[in-house]
Design a protein that fits this description.
By secondary structure, the protein is α+β, with helices and mostly antiparallel strands. Helix content is 37%, strand content 27%. It has one domain. A hairpin with a 2-residue loop joins strand 1 and strand 2. The two termini are 26 Å apart. 15% of the residues are buried.
Length: 89
């Protein structure tokens, strides 16, 4: 899990902004229950967010570094993305 807590209708969510599913069955079960209850939504496969209103593409663009580092441990960012510290497209 990563980032600050999400904001739902002016209320602070108990979930972090980005939630990464794990191989831990209990944690995975809690995430799926929260998803069914409408507390989380899927952002990417096995990646969820407690932000239920922001456009998913915008969330991915804003938080691309933690997403990338979770999906690809120890990434090397080079060329234009590395220089600008943001995706090029």
């Amino acid at each position: 899990m990563f980032c600050q807590h999400g904001d739902r209708n002016g209320k602070r969510s108990p979930w972090l902004l980005l939630v990464f599913d794990t191989s831990n069955k209990a944690t995975s079960r809690r995430i799926q229950q929260a998803r069914r209850a409408g507390e989380l939504r899927e952002l990417l496969p096995r990646v969820y967010t407690s932000d239920l209103t922001t456009d998913p593409a915008l969330l991915v663009r804003r938080h691309w570094l933690p997403l990338l580092s979770h999906l690809y441990p120890d990434p090397v960012i080079s060329h234009r993305s590395g220089l600008d510290a943001q995706p090029t497209s």
